Amino acid sequence: MSYRALAASAAAVLVAAAGASAAVPTTGNLVVLRAGDGSASLNTSSVDTFLQEFTPAGSLVQTQNISGFAGNTLRVQGSSSSEGFITYVNGWLTVAGYDVAAGVASPSGATAAANRRILSFVGDLNNPSVSISQPNSVLHTSNAFRSAVTADGNSFYTSGGTQGTFYFATPTTAPTLVQSSITNSRVVNIQTFATTTPGVPQTRLMVSSATTGLNGVGAFPGSPPTAASSISVFGSNSVSGSPFSTGSNYAFAVSPDGLTMYIADDGNNTAGIHKLTRSLALSSGGWTYAYTFRTNTSGGNTFSARGLAVDWTGTSPVIYATTAETSANRLISIVDSVSTFTTGSVGTTTGVRINDQLPTLVATADANTAFRGVVFIPTPGVLGLAGVAGLVGLRRRR
Question: Where residue 71 sits, what CATH number does that domain have?
């Protein structure tokens, strides 16, 4: 069954369960994670975490503080723009953070025993609940807890600044380290796209990184693993034709046909939204660098991006991205309909193909807040922001 069919099936079940009173995001809208309530400048202390729904034109539809529902205390580190990524697979939006009160200093630097790592599965939000896993003091301990993904609202994968990539079969089972060769992992996601065999899609677990061994986006072989596995480079901004030799890679997206990929990059000399293309939907590789999008709506030399989502449903892909400023940053959109580019520079890197299309401003985060991750709702809305359900805490009992 295709990704779209699976998502539509999940949508039907969850909408039926939620009932008419749920505030369900509209198909074609965006959900963005916002760090902070605006009451004070963002710093390294923990802040309340919000989900905000926007239309593609930038109208704010609804805002929900997910730090206060059903005993949930999920918060992110205020000024850490490497946290707060969100994923959306099969109708499940997943958020990663820390099980702490607001104002806790540098929660990412504390051990997982002291500041428990917690994540939220956002699905049927009319029935709030909290499920507590067994105590775990290892999960991305003493470093950033950056992202998580689930395809079924039960099992999940996580990424962070230490250890590698973890898998949980259920919220109450012990984690399995499915890869430890790339310890500093950034965004973990599940992507489904075509293969060279018509009608046979592949679903792959992928992780971005900017370290030796994986300076780009890596993929696990075959279906998402449930035991220790290997990981190899799937694509990066240093592929054939690219002027870049390194990158600082965060969120990414692969097209349903497997022939286009976008990577958000915020490196000093590599920043931008990089487009890669290929002619065959291989299991890995085969990419060629196409060009790089800037993130400045006025055409200035601003490129940095971290959060990224793509609407693949139209004639031309529409890219949505959050910029890398630590406060009052921007949510932008780019219709990838212009293939012309001007050769220029990003930092000290020359020979960069800078696409001639300028981004459009969708929204600007309020003062003393920041947008982090962004997802596009591609199928009938399956999550409401009027409540929180499927909240899964990774807690260590004190």
Answer: 2.120.10.30
